[in-house]
Backbone:
């Protein structure tokens, strides 16, 4: 099957088969806690609230179905990393606070696996770590600098280590490997199985879930929908990229598309040639993000950024099936593993992630106003949403823990620039980064402008 004729439903959602939607909100209602958004952020918050304060009434309002957004379409990387540098968290919480933040993320990877096992959610969880390979000299230099910096900060060899080319090839037999980094706190999983399983678990615990319910605005303790108004003592906004659809929130998070492809299940001979025996998630260290995993049924699911940003932070479902971008992603995959050139591509799809202006995810709770919000994961939200939801649930419940004073709690960001500055900045930066990758692969020399652009994009503001 050629990529042109591949189904445009996400592999993970397609494998679940037809779903019966839960009942939509029908009229006015009142709850102790209302969570807007039925993805990982909202459902993890609901999960921990149902354990911490089982006597409180909790509802989740979801416009489509639980897992419709990035939670059901992502690359299945449950990785113990946060967007934003160690130094950003240290400026807010000191070096000790930044290290606690990092180790809390490591623990979140295990917590996802623990909960999935305890609750009987078969999400194909496999903690095989993440391997990133350097395929040019500039990438190799960046890897050496990264691991040296991590060691200076106090991260151990067991947590992150530098691999020489031969060591890296024992994990992933990609082309042109110069070196690699192995990051232990990472698991591959099927995100749709996890998010839909989590929805079933929280519903069984007494949480009300209304799917097919469009929230148009939040005014204090009142949540306005197209089918009624809900009143709540606490309102949690867990809408990630779709935050832009709420009144007054158009520039809070920038929605950016990421696209994926998936191969047919591969024969054992091909899997043996590729490697990935323990199912580590994988990438290389180019500037334009790529990511992949070997699925439980021996497909390669692979994705990357690069779809043009849409004026006005617009979300357009046609972008999810942008064939030229899918072809480029497939070409990149075959460049890593030439043996996949003749493998059928069965699925191609996309989803939208949310980026705050400072590129730092955060958790917020204003007890006086009864308002909470979380997110801004910059595409690394599978494990981060667990930690964020657990933290916010503790804050709502009035529980102090080792999580409730982490540096990302209350870490604010200003809004994105208005158009046309936003459109010009993102489009030009994307082009510079793509050109930098081409330059580094062709010449084996660093594209210094790309580093400056990356720093500008992620500026602490």
Residues:
């Amino acid at each position: 099957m050629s990529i042109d004729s591949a189904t445009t439903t996400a592999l993970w959602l397609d494998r679940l088969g037809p779903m019966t939607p839960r009942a939509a909100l029908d009229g006015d209602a009142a709850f102790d806690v209302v969570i807007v958004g039925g993805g990982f952020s909202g459902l993890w918050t609901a999960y921990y609230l149902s354990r911490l304060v089982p006597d409180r009434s909790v509802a989740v309002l979801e416009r489509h179905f639980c897992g419709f957004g990035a939670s059901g379409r992502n690359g299945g990387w449950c990785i113990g990393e946060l967007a934003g540098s160690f130094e950003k968290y240290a400026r807010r919480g000191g070096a000790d606070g930044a290290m606690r933040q990092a180790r809390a993320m490591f623990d979140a990877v295990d917590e996802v696996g623990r909960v999935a096992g305890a609750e009987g959610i078969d999400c194909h969880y496999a903690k095989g770590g993440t391997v990133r390979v350097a395929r040019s000299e500039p990438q190799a230099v960046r890897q050496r600098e990264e691991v040296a910096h991590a060691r200076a900060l106090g991260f151990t060899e067991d947590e992150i280590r530098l691999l020489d080319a031969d060591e890296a090839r024992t994990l992933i037999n990609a082309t042109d490997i110069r070196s690699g980094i192995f990051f232990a706190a990472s698991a591959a999983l099927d995100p749709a199985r996890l998010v839909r399983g989590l929805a079933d678990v929280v519903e069984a615990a007494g949480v009300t879930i209304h799917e097919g319910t469009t929230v148009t605005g939040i005014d204090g303790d009142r949540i306005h929908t197209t089918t009624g108004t809900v009143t709540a003592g606490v309102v949690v906004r867990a809408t990630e990229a779709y935050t832009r659809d709420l009144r007054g929130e158009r520039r809070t998070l920038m929605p950016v598309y990421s696209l994926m492809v998936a191969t047919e299940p591969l024969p054992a001979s091909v899997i043996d040639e590729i490697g990935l025996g323990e199912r580590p998630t994988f990438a290389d260290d180019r500037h334009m993000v790529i990511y992949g995993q070997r699925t439980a049924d021996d497909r390669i699911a692979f994705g990357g950024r690069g779809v043009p940003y849409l004026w006005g932070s617009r979300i357009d479902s046609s972008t999810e099936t942008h064939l030229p971008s899918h072809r480029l992603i497939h070409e990149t995959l075959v460049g890593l593993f030439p043996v996949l050139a003749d493998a059928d591509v069965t699925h191609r799809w996309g989803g939208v992630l949310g980026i705050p202006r400072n590129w730092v995810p955060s958790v917020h709770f204003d007890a006086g106003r009864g308002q909470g919000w979380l997110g801004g994961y910059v595409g690394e939200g599978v494990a981060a949403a667990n930690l964020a939801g657990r933290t916010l649930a503790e804050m709502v419940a009035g529980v102090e823990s080792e999580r409730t004073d982490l540096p990302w709690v209350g870490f604010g960001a200003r809004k994105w620039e208005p158009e046309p500055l936003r459109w010009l900045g993102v489009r030009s930066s994307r082009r510079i980064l793509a050109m930098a990758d081409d330059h580094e692969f062709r010449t084996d020399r660093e594209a210094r402008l790309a580093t400056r652009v990356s720093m500008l994009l992620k500026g602490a503001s």
Summary: Residues 417-461 form one domain. The chain has eleven helices and 18 strands.
